[in-house]
Specification:
7 strands, 3 helices
């Protein structure tokens, strides 16, 4: 995962399947992932769906499952890899902003994919989580071809 641009994990066909038009490479500014490679994936047409994908080289999925972070999480599986799917505590009671799936790809490393609810379409939490897991699965399929 070191040096990997997560944008390279989404093919043109996958972007079409996700109804996305644009991907752009970024560097994370989040305190926990500062300087790590990130990718913004966006639709330029309604409902303006968006995703993000981060190559986390400092942790696997374990921290999300401990209960020590301000999230509710469940253990899941993406393309045969262990994953944690999580959302902010209390999101079931509100119109949640996003759902994230973190996939264990190597010891102490993960691919973190979020589906955001900031467009014109309002998705339920379950729909957002399904979207995050689907996009993460696509990225993992591509990652496996790069080995």
């Amino acid at each position: 995962m070191d040096g990997l641009d997560p944008c390279t994990l989404f093919t043109g066909t996958q972007l079409t399947q996700l109804k996305l038009d644009k991907k752009r490479s970024r560097v994370s500014e989040a305190a926990s992932y500062k300087g790590m490679k990130d990718c913004a994936l966006e639709s330029l047409h309604p409902p303006f769906d968006s995703y993000s994908a981060l190559a986390a080289t400092n942790e696997g999925i374990e921290p999300w499952l401990t209960g020590k972070r301000n999230v509710e999480a469940k253990l899941s599986s993406v393309s045969g890899f262990a994953a944690a799917t999580y959302w902010f505590r209390g999101a079931h009671d509100h119109n949640t902003a996003d759902c994230t799936t973190s996939v264990d790809v190597a010891q102490g490393q993960s691919l973190i994919v979020s589906a955001d609810n900031d467009g014109m379409q309002t998705y339920t939490l379950d729909e957002l989580c399904q979207r995050a897991e689907q996009a993460a699965g696509m990225a993992i399929q591509t990652l496996q071809t790069l080995k």
